[in-house]
Write a structure and sequence with these properties.
mainly beta, 469 residues, 4 helices
Length: 469
Amino acid sequence: MFSISHGAAPLTTTKFRNIKPTPEKLLRQQTARIYTGSPRVKLFASASPAASQDLTLPLNEGSSSELIKNISTSHKIEFESFALVDNGKDRLPASQEEYNLMLKAFPAALSIGVFPPVVVVQFGDLPPKPWPLTVAGLPVLFTTKENTIGFEYGRPGGSFKKALDDYDAREHVTRELFAAAIAHFEQELSIPILSILNLAGPWIVTIPDGVEFSSLPYLLAKTLCHFKYASETEEHIGPAFRNTEPAGTVWDQTLYQILQPGIMLSSGRGLNELLTTSGIVVEDNNGYRYLTLASPGFPFSRESVYHSNANGALLGRVHSRLTGTNIALLRLSSSQGFRNETFGVGLPDGTNILPQKICGIKDPFSVRKYDEVSMNNPFSGYSTGVHVGVQQSKVPSDDPLVDHTWVTNQWTYIGNGHDEPMDGWCGSPVLDENGNVVSLIRFLTPSGFAVGDAASTLELGGLTLSSSL
């Protein structure tokens, strides 16, 4: 049983954040809808129906600076006449007219390219932030570089062979399909692959160095298959965020009496104080309750867990870690209050998004491509993203007689326009629209992808979501 020692600041209990992190993501929670019959743009707050406010502006060839600003700061850009995503299925633009309409939404753009799962918009100079998350339903990436698609896919298979042609990964992938894919490489081709990712359609497979590309399939389950050598893959260990506050950024360092997802956690005093975000509370078969943590935020030499920083409350020490993941567990005392629900969010117009109760744990394989998910952490506040992929990675083992374990990760696109310290996001729960936890953030990429450990891994370890106390 762990006791809580109180810091100098008073503990606070609230369903809304005591301090709003900045930059405030709610400034982006609006949608620009482009009506093509008589080209006009309608902007409205989409986060809360009660807060909806309409603003209609003309969209002409000589678009005004006010219109450009409103479009570029919209959370979503949609077109009346077409969408590039329908029920989780993406497509390329069907005509030059559709390309032209997307270009019209970004008058300063040099070019626009559609490479599912992203739309890449190239500029001479990047526009002011924040930037949109999606355009026509697909995640959008802003860049000044030529010939970039925001992600290094690797190289296609060197043969024209097709594999697993009885499956179709173009619309949906399943655990069964992943198991069949792993078996194909390891048993039929005798290639001990290290990881396999389906990124909204295309496959990216990590293979041992030296494997001949001529032996690799070009199509896997009717979908293009790309390969990377292990030495070409960047290893992401953990958050390791240095406590140096960027100018103009406010974090929520409030000490909350009732623990809940999205509060700040610290590794304590030391050369580098590591700051991360709390996850959810789960319990084992004996009724013991645990708070999930970002494991790399608490190295083996620094396992004390503080909230919210080194001068705050000592919650205890890391109890255990889940093999092959970035999930650690802090066992809570029987008297420690907690709430398995997100913080409420105050909108700029004075209305509120109420706290969302966490209802359950959802397998990433059950999430539809391009469905919206949300996060709420002490560094950036509330933000949303788009589900774009599922990955399985092999957990190394030195014992040749033991079958390898495969862990599952979820990939979310959160946009590439963030300035706040994103390493601190690690540990944050990723929720679907119904309040189910899909993953716990493991790391973030510079191009705007958040990779999380599947929350269903907790269930495999005999843990279940706990009721609030």
